[in-house]
Amino acid sequence: MTNDADREVALLTEEEAATELERLATEIARHDRLYHQKDAPEIFDADYDALRRRNDTIEARFPELIRDDSPNKRVGAAPAEGFTQVRHSRPMLSLQNAFAEADVVEFFARIRRFLGLEADAEVAVMGEPKIDGISAALRYEDGVFVQGATRGDGVTGEDITRNLKTLDEIPEHLVGDAPAVVEVRGEVYMTRDGFFELNRKREAEGAAVFANPRNAAAGSLRQLDPKITATRPLHFFAYASGELSEPVADSHADFLKRLDAWGFRTNPLARLCKTPEEVLELYREILEARPELPYDIDGVVYKLDRHDWQDRMGMVSRAPRWAIAHKFPAEQAQTVLNRISIQVGRTGALTPVAELEPITVGGVVVSRATLHNEDEIARKDVREGDTVVIQRAGDVIPQVVRAVEDNRPANAKPYVFPTECPICGSLATRDEGEVVRRCTGGLICPAQAVERIKHFVSRNAFDIEGFGRKHVAAFWADKLIESPADIFRLRSRVEELKTREGWGEQSAANLLDSIETRRSISLDRFIYALGIRQVGEATARLLARQYGGLEEWRAAMAAATDERAENREEMKKPELVGEAFADLCNIDSVGFSVADAITDFFAEAHNQAILDDLSEELEVVPIEAPASTSPVSGKTVVFTGTLERMTRNEAKARAESLGAKVAGSISKKTDYLVAGPGAGSKLAKATELGIEILSEDDWLGLISSTA
Ligand code: IVH
Fold first, then answer.
1. Most Cβ neighbours (<10 Å): which of 406, 410, 413, 626?
2. Contact yes or no for 356/337 (Cβ under 8 A)
3. CATH superfamily label, 636-703
4. Does the CA dihedral 644-649-650-651 come out positive or negative?
5. Helix, strand, coil proportions of the chain in percent (round to 5)?
6. Is 130 a catalytic residue?
7. How far does residue 44's CA lie from ligand 1's centre (Å)?
8. Does domain 3-73 have CATH number 1.10.287.610?
9. Does residue 187 line the site of ligand 1, with CB under 6 A?
């Protein structure tokens, strides 16, 4: 289908496309509100559809520009206007991915290690297809369906009860006995046939077609009018539980049986496996069956069967340790690499990007792919003008796999990586042992400055509603925002703001309002937002928990930085650098190289200035320790010697989940040393410092006094 609008899209530059997508997102959202909430549409349906079509065409050509607030993404992203928010009683988790058979073998090995199982103990794992749809949580009270929600960000979703009630495969009443509260989770999906049929109808009506069955399912659930949802061919597979007022099964296999008995559909291909070999056999079977299945799947999920073991394994950064998604291989395609361009990231890293002749891979049009770094280009000998093999693996950015040398143009020359930053012209250098070449321009480099601010406002950092990446670049270019704190001073420039193109009184007021709501922020998000190298969300949380408040953290980091400046040569033993530095390294999972990255950050005067500046504008609040009812919450504990009733990892994870800090060595700040047989120097040091020493049983007794 080509029309004038589509032809024009083919001519858009990337920058124009980004601006256009932003305009369309705002415009379409406004018409949605007018139509659904105010019952006062301003345009004809056909014109609305043309806007949607234009948006979809641009998204198809520039998939990397698809916005978080894209009209196609409103389910599954942050709660959209028009739906009430639902806070999940238990978070809706995501899954860790496995791509190779070795990852699956390691998954089994990790379970054994974590639980400390005997070599001959049987580990049963359920394998089931990973349905490519939209997950939903269904709450039943006294056997009656009372509320259904999307996953949202995992913590808060949208109330889509009325839409879910239109699905035949979601029972209104559970059959037979059920506890007072039962929350069933599963996947809403559309069959491929249903999807094609729906698109045929939409095309005939002149409406925008959906890109794939997953988007179609999402779009159908997103309808504010459930009557529309009811006309869509949606299905549901149940596969997990959320809140349960009492346990309903001891194993996942039994739980699936309960789901069946209550009247849900569970996936008929699910099978209990006892060894990595059995699991891999199931994987191959499902991969082979994939083309014949009526719906899209993108891998196989493996779940540890025993519920008591699932509980013991717990989770790590929003994914359970007891499950894994074994993804199907990436889909590949060949196209021409027109040019290699260089992007500069927030830490100054120069990343080569392949600018490709657009091509469809796995249902998505790809026009750019990553080449990773200088060494990778050299290793693969990829040259401008080459025909290359590219692939998309799941949601990952497309990659260039290799060059097809037989098709190489005669004049293609080996690529020479720049030694100057293409943005600011500063020298770009490579540290010994590093693969990444970095711009040395720091904040005088516009690319770094802009990327840092983009990170600052991103979803897991300040998460300022209505202030996306594209705004940052535009505001920066016009000198409205030159450093993070400027965001919080924007209100003094409201006149300039509301007279900007595409802005007005109301949109400026909305933005300033959402900025105000973020003037108070938790310390962990604040630390993460700074974008310090090697400090991700998990480390930021540990730091926040360890140091409590912003001032305390800054003081401790300043001390560690001074110590590091005086002892630059020391590369191994944190104690030899100094006490504050050692304390920092001692935080579990921080270690020497992360501590170095943090002190490097604090050693830069301009970073200190940014912190001073931000402190003037913000209130940074300490984070709440989880499970504050636990007697060990907030305490620092060290484990040493052999543990007999649990593995070291399990002990650590359990302690952390109760709000304790686990350290690797003894210091004055240690509250408990849990010592098993064979404890040596740590036990001696703890005794010397008068630290409370517990046996493994004492420790278990202490933590089980928690509710
Ligand atoms: S279990 C605690 N089982 O995959 C584990 N998820 O990447 C929760 N999904 O958000 C998920 N099929 O939307 C599970 N058989 C299956 C699944 C499945 C598809 C989706 C689900 C989840 C995502 C995680």
1. 626
2. yes
3. BRCT domain (3.40.50.10190)
4. positive
5. 40, 20, 35
6. yes
7. 39
8. yes
9. yes
